[in-house]
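re: that chain from earlier
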Amino acid sequence: MKIVLVDPSRLILKVTSGYLAETGYDVVAFTDATEALAHVQADAEVEVLVTGLEPHGLSGLDLCRLARDFVGARRALHVIVMSSSSESRRIAEALDAGADDFMSKPPEPEEFLARLRVAARATAAQRELLRLATVDGLTGLLNRRAFFEAAEQTPGQACCLTMFDIDRFKQINDSFGHAAGDRVIAAVAREAARQGDVAGRLGGEEFALVVPERRLADAIDLCEDLRARIAALSFADIHRDLAATCSFGVVARGEDEDIGAALQRADIALYAAKTSGRNRVVAATAPGDRRTIVMDRARPTSHGAEAARQDRPCVREA
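^ sequence. v structure.
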């Protein structure tokens, strides 16, 4: 467990950090609350913040508020305030500022370690709640809400997005059963997750990816590679005739363009991919231009084996 410890007393920091480190905790100590806050913000693995009420830079209460505001509901963080005063007013102020616990200063080792065990249980429960709230249970990708939140945090400049879905998915369910359909969805999601970008399941058989710091041409190539890998998937253990392909709509997000608006353009491009034959990548033009550039690279596949590729760009009205 990573702990950030904040107090103006270097002696308290040295003694406390020493026995915590001997117990196996990873401790980073600060006398300045501003530096401590920056460290909490930069290191997502910090799970516990322990602060006195009067460090340098910021007050301990301000540090609690700012740290709590920063992590919000996106991250598990347990905050402990320590003070030489046990007045109920001080305790109430600390709890109102966002602290989860309060203890005397200097902390007694046995009590401190017990409180850290409580913190470990609490942060484990928070992480599980966050996982349930943000991760799609079948695929392990971000769910729709979490995907939009993560995508909004990606700078618009040099960012591309793609929406894609599984072609004729209803036929897969009808012909091979819903268990087979779930297998196909999970397999497609694994390939999407391999891209290393922000990936989400928007619902049913529909997915989305954020491709940061890429030009549109690079994003098209990335999607074409993903399309080919999905088309090559084998489901022979279920049925020799079961195969899956996906259609893609790709856009370059405009500067300051809302994620929802960018995904609407990607959805138009996805529709063009569907109506022009499926199993292909279609890229939309800039915001405000309703044309789409169709990268007609894919031919229909049979049992996961991809046929010869041809590049035939053309322009279609979306």
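Residues 2-134 form a domain with the Rossmann fold fold (CATH 3.40.50.2300).
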